[in-house]
Amino acid sequence: MTFADRSVLVTGANRGIGQALVEEALRRGAKRVYAGTRPPLAHPDERVTPLTLDVTDAAQIQAAVESVASLDVLINNAGVGLYADLSDRAALEQHLAVNLFGSYDTTQAFLPLLTRSRGTIVNVLSLAALAPVPLDPTYSISKAAAFSLTQSLRAALAGRGVAVHAVLSGPVDTDMGPRIDIPKASVESVALAILDAVENGDEEIFPDPLSASMAEGWRDSASKALERQMAAFVQAEPISS
Ligand SMILES: NC(=O)c1ccc[n+]([C@@H]2O[C@H](COP(=O)([O-])OP(=O)(O)OC[C@H]3O[C@@H](n4cnc5c(N)ncnc54)[C@H](OP(=O)(O)O)[C@@H]3O)[C@@H](O)[C@H]2O)c1
Hints:
Layout: E1 7-11, H1 16-27, E2 32-37, E3 48-52, H2 58-66, E4 73-76, H3 89-116, E5 120-124, H4 137-157, E6 163-167, H5 187-200, E7 204-205, H6 209-212, H7 215-219, H8 222-236
Helix pairs in contact: 1-5, 2-3, 3-4
The chain binds NADP nicotinamide-adenine-dinucleotide phosphate.
NADP nicotinamide-adenine-dinucleotide phosphate binds at residues 11-12, 14-18, 38-39, 53-56, 77-81, 98, 102, 124, 126, 169, 171-172, 174-178.
């Protein structure tokens, strides 16, 4: 898989990692990049089509689907990180609304286009999906749930030729990035590593120095082995997505 001549949709495309993913897809020769944003967006490259897309708004998702003719790659990047206490139920609901259900609803809506193109889904998650970040537990819960969603989609869609990737990023230098003094990767380096890994077919993507140190251990882990074992059951007994 390469990004050249592909049509790509990135959610949360106006800043941070999403903005860098748009630029990296353009650099690789994407023929069309749909930039999903809440505020209006203007972009100098004519290959960019702005889409008004709050991923928690069913009507906006439906309107976006209707304005996209064909789609090869959906990148569910939009996310929130509220740094809330575990006792804060409203924060948990907000994290789930964007980080889990936002990706879920966007994916379900674009699935007919993605199955038609035998396309690719990239869910931008976090290392917090694997082990909770004590400073942001409700965020971590939402990312762990979104990781399970990603694995479930991968198993369900394999038979239809749709590849599903999980980005398990460490700290990145954005508005959302950790508010403590630790090294953070640049958005440009992370976007480049994500698209390299998608082109390489990596199911889990570790795009920054901190997460990259875990990549090999993850691929040989008991969790990954179990996912492959479970997937074999699905191939024997297909489930609907
Ligand atoms: N930064 C890190 O250290 C880090 C590490 C691991 C994973 N991640 C993940 O990377 C992804 C991008 O985060 P970032 O670091 O680039 O953060 P960011 O700079 O805060 O950007 C977040 C993006 O998500 C958008 N967004 C939020 N809620 C939305 C909604 N309901 N509908 C549509 N768009 C929405 C924002 O749009 P507005 O401008 O309209 O708010 C913004 O474009 C997130 O999924 C995050 O969890 C980040």
